[in-house]
Amino acid sequence: MDMFDCGIYSFVNAVTIETVRYWARNSYQHIDVLINSAKPNNGVVYESFNNDLKRLYKSFHNIYDELADVKRDTNVYFMVKRFLIANDHFMVILQRLKFEGFNGYPELYQVTYHILYEQMYVKEIFRPLMITSDVNTDNVVINSNFRRMGLGTNPIQCIYGQIYFWSIIGAEHPSIIMNISPNETKQLPKKIINEFNNITKKFNDVNYKLSNIYPKLNNMNILVVIKEFSKINEEFIRLLYSLKDNIESLPNIKNNLPKLFFAILEHIINEHGYAKLLTEKILESQYGKNI
Predict the structure, then answer these.
(1) DSSP string, 111-169
(2) What percentage of the chain carries pLDDT values higher than 90?
(3) Which regions of the chain does DSSP assign to beta strands (E)?
(4) pLDDT for 24-69, tens place per residue?
(5) What secondary structure letter does DSSP report for 154?
(6) In Å, how far are 161, 162, 191 from 222, measured between CA atoms?
(7) At 73, is the secondary structure helix, strand, or coil?
(8) Rounded Cα gap, residues 27 and 94, in angstroms
(9) Distance between terminal CA atoms of the chain?
C-alpha cells in the first residue's frame, strides 16, 4: 500500500489512490461503529445526526467504490477534495455527538473522540495537496492536546506526528475492544486481558518518550522510539489474532458477542496493519532497508 511516509512531500508520490480508498473505507466503517454502538450503551443518535451520518456513509462508500477500477492517471485531487468535504462534515457531527447524545457515557465518549482523532489525522495526510502556503513549524506537531495538528514541514517532525498519533490510537484500542461487550470479554482468559492492559501502557510510554525528546528531536533519538513503537505494534497485532482465535475456541462467548464486535476487531487489525506498513516505509525511506 502506498501511503504518506514522511520522506516525500510531492503530492503525486505522497498520496495515492490506494491511500484515499483506504481512508474512505475506514470512514464509512467508523460511521457504522457510531450508529451501532449508541443503543447498547444507552446513547442517542438524534434523527438529524442519523440522517447526516447515513448520507456521509454513502458519500464515503461511493468514493471507495469509484476508486476500485481507476487508473493511476485518475484525478486524485478531485477525489481527495470530495473526501475532505465529507470528512469536514463528519468531524462537525463528531464534535456535536460528544455533547449531544453521547455525553455521560464513557465508552461512547471515548469512541467518538477516537474516531475524531482519526478523521483529523487523515485530513493532515492530504494537507500537502490542499494547502500550498508555508506551514509555521510551531503548528505542525500533533501534541498531547491535539489543539495543533499537522505532520510537519520536514521528515523528523512528520515522523514524530505519525508515531505519536498511532500510539494514541493503539493505547485506546484495547479499551474499545473490551467495552463493546464487557460481560463476554471479561470471560476471556485473564492472560489476554492482562496483555491488553499492558499494550495500553506501552503505547502511552511511547508518547511520553516522544514528548521528552521533542526539544532535542533528531534522527537518532527518534529512531529509538520508532523501533520501540514498531515492536509494540507487532506485539499488539499478534495479540489481536490471539484474541480472535480464543473467541473462536470459546463458543459460549462467541455466540453472545454482537456482530459489531467482530467488525470492530477486524477494523482494528487492519489499522495496525496499516501502521506496520507505514513504520516499515518510514524506516526504509529515512534510514535504509537494513536498519
Answers:
(1) HHHHHHHHHHHHHHHTHHHH--S---GGG-S--TT-SS----SSHHHHHHHHHHHHHHH
(2) 46
(3) none
(4) 999 999 999 999 888 888 889 999 999 999 999 999 999 999 888 7
(5) S
(6) 11, 12, 32
(7) coil
(8) 12
(9) 21
